[in-house]
Each structure stands twice: as structure tokens, then as C-alpha cells.
Amino acid sequence: MSLLEIDSLVKEFGGLVATDDVSVSIEEDERVSLIGPNGAGKSTLINLITRRLDPTSGDIRFKGESILGLDAHEVVQNGISKSFQTASIFPEMTVEENAQIAAFAAEHGSFRLNFLRRRGAYPEVEARTRDTLDAVGLLGQADTEAQALPYGDKRRLEIGIALASEPDMLLMDEPTAGMSPEETQATVDLIEEVKRELGLTFLLVEHDMEIVFSISDRIIVLNRGQVIAEGTPDEIRGHPDVQEAYLGGVEL
Ligand SMILES: Nc1ncnc2c1ncn2[C@@H]1O[C@H](COP(=O)(O)OP(=O)(O)OP(=O)(O)O)[C@@H](O)[C@H]1O
Predict the structure, then answer these.
(1) Does the N-terminal or the C-terminal CB of the chain have fewer CB atoms within 10 Å?
(2) Among residues 248, 227, 204, which one has the least CA distance to residue 84?
(3) Ramachandran quadrant class, 154 (left: phi over 0; alpha: psi -120 to 50; beta: rest)
(4) 13 pocket-lining for ligand 1 (C-beta < 6 Å)
(5) E runs forming strands in the chain
(6) Calpha distance 78→30 (Å, rounded)
(7) Burial of 52 (0-12, 13-18, 19+ CB in 10 A)
(8) Per-residue pLDDT tens over the stretch 14-30
């Protein structure tokens, strides 16, 4: 059984078919990238998996069970987490408070505003907070305001927040969008570290081909909502349909 199974998935927006009969699977411990030109349907597929969108038809199964009856929170509790959401950090709170909020949500299903005032009453949240900060190397900056962190450490905090729920699968939608080369490198290093140390399964949407080819076990190529190719980086690099659809015939 694959960890994630997407079966004949269709998503229509009015007359537009953004996801057109997509069937793909992701195995445990696999690192998969989803690529394709603008408007290919990559973000739509991620939003279907996180239950931010309802499909028109088809099924998504995680650990063998359909997740279509779950809401977005329940999907996270089932083990699918998404990182690099722009709004995931509270900038004026400390690193520790940000991790506590994520840990509280992971333990109790959702964030309650009065939690931070009564935090001593939740020892399991404290333990998870420490584990989270330790996993991303931020224990030493626990008392720093999130907005004062250097760029690379902000990325670490974001990924820590996504990891607080101890996901089996991490989704990343364009983690390096809008970044400088240095910031991109810091983010790639962090993804490599997570891959090496936590052995997570992940699905990455990324436009930068160098990153995609360096960190993926397998690449899925979407074009106009359909899967046009799937394979290892070497197979995808030489695939004529991919070169045509994705790069207008330019050599990869
Ligand atoms: N909420 C929406 N309502 C209507 N159309 C939408 C909506 N979301 C996406 N679309 C359309 O669905 C298609 C797929 O969009 P999607 O954002 O999934 O593509 P993408 O591959 O992520 O593109 P990009 O690389 O530019 O982010 C596009 O034609 C887009 O305009």
C-alpha cells in the first residue's frame, strides 16, 4: 500500500478543468517533486490533498483510508502537514511561543487564544515544544522574537511548526519562491537536513529545476491538469514531452 494514493482526481473551476483525471501514488520515505508550467494545476493538487479544496470527483487515500470526509485540521492530525505557508509565523511572538502554539494545536486539534496564559498547565505541550525546537536547532533562540531571527532561522522555525504535528508526509509549495540565492541555498540545505535526519516522505512543488533534480527520488510532471510524465530525475531530464511542455523545447 502506498502512503498517499490519488485516484482519478478531477477538480473543475466552472468550465476550467484544473485537475484532469490525475492518478498518482507516493510511497513511504519517497521524496517527490511536482513540476509543470504555470497554471498546470500543481497548487490545486496540493490544496486538494490538504482538503482546502473539494474535488469534483475521484478519491485521495492516505494510509489506505479516504481523506475526503476529513476537514483540513483532521488531515494534519492524520499525518499530512504543509510547510512554508507565509502566515505560519507570528512575528511578534518568541520562537518558543510560536513552537508552543504549533505544539498545542498538534496535541489538542486547534489553537485556543487563552492557551499562552495557561501554558504551564500543559506539560505534554511543553515536551513537544522542546522536541520541535531541538529538531530544527532553535533551542538556543527560544526567547528571541520571531521577527528578529535571521532569514535561515525563520525558515527553520516555519519547518519546525510544520513538524510539530509529527507528520508522516510534508507538503511544500514553492518553498524558495521570491528568495535571494543565499536564502534559497539556506532553504535547500534545511530541506536536505530534514530529508537526512527525519527521513520524512515529502511532496515538493518547485520551479527551480536545479533544486528539483538534486533532492527528488521521483518527479511528477503536470501539464494542463494532466500527468504527462513520471520518473527519476534522469528519466525526466531526457523526456521529450517534458522538454516540449515545460520548457518549450529548451534542453534541460
Ligand atoms: N480558486 C480558483 N478559481 C478558479 N480557477 C482557479 C482557482 N484556482 C486555480 N484556478 C485555475 O486552475 C488552473 C491551475 O492553477 P494552479 O494554481 O493549480 O496551477 P499551478 O501549476 O500551481 O500554477 P503556478 O505555477 O503558476 O502556481 C489555472 O488555470 C488557474 O487559473
Answers:
(1) N
(2) 204
(3) alpha
(4) yes
(5) 4-13, 16-26, 31-35, 57-62, 65-66, 80-83, 169-173, 201-205, 218-223, 226-231
(6) 18
(7) middle
(8) 999 999 999 999 999 99
42 lines ligand 1 (CB under 6 A): yes
* Ligand 1 atom 5: residue of nearest CA: 13
Nearest to 72 by CA among 171, 155, 2, 160: 171
Distance CA 62, CA 153 (A): 31
**Cα 56 from Cα 72, distance rounded (Å):** 17
56 lines ligand 1 (CB under 6 A): no
- C-alpha distances out from residue 147 to 94, 116, 128, 138, 245, Å: 8, 19, 22, 14, 40
From atom 17 of ligand 1, which residue's Cα is the shortest distance away? 43
How many other C-beta atoms lie within 10 A of the C-beta of residue 227? 21
Compute the CA torsion angle 136, 151, 181, 243 (nearest 10 deg): 60
233 lines ligand 1 (CB under 6 A): no
The pLDDT of residue 19: 98
pLDDT for 246 equals 66
Query: CA 216, CA 228: separation in Å to the nearest integer?
Result: 17
Average pLDDT over residues 99-123: 71
133 — pLDDT class (breaks 50, 70, 90): very high
- Here the ipTM equals 0.97
- What was the pLDDT predicted at 166? 83
Three cell numbers written together for 47: 490544496
